[in-house]
Amino acid sequence: MRKTRTSSPSRAQRQTRAARTGQPARPPAPGEGKRGEDGHLAYLLRQAQAAARLSLERALVSTGLTHPQFVVLTMLKAYPGLSGADCARVALLTPQTVNVIIGNLERDGAIARSPHPVHGRVLQWTLTRRGLALLAKARRHASALERRLARGVSRRELATIRRWLARIATEFHPD
User: What is the mean pLDDT of residues 134-140?
Assistant: First the structure.
């Protein structure tokens, strides 16, 4: 016996059904219609980013960190001594947001400031022991999400995806 593939109802079918029942039409679920493989690439990237960010935000709740705080700590560990402005650029956040984050992280003892050796008015930021411990705890949660994201993808495919995403960021960067 041959199995037939069932597909999701089309938009027109959903609207017709909704009109008959008096119910409002519902958009397709993620992975269906234009929210799935038939979708526009830029939209699918945005949809995936939003889903991953929400998952990470939920995972970070137990650490007491917000997603932007986690990103700032991650960038300061990777690039110690960044100024607030440079941190904002690499963290993809506004300088105003990073200033608030830096103030809160400094108050909590997670980061420390020092004057730039050449430009005295520029402050450089580094992680403290407390900041390193906090980031390590948060990184465990983020690593679990990374493993979920990479599930079912070979190392070679993952390397290709990373190259593709990095190329997009480089090619479409506004500077």
Answer: 97
Task: Give the pLDDT of residue 1.
Answer: 46
Show the tokens assigned to 167: 């190329």
Helix (H, G, I), strand (E, B) or coil at 3: coil
Taking the C-alpha atoms of residue 91 and residue 173, their distance in angstroms, rounded to an integer, is 14
User: How is the chain split among helix, strand and coil, in percent rounded to 5?
Assistant: 60, 5, 30
- pLDDT tens-digit series, residues 38-68: 899 999 999 999 999 999 999 999 999 999 9
Q: Using CA atoms, how far apart are residues 116 and 114, in angstroms rounded to an integer?
A: 6
**Segment holding 97, helix H or strand E:** helix 95-107
Residues in CB range of 114: below 8 A, 6 or more apart = 81, 123, 124, 126
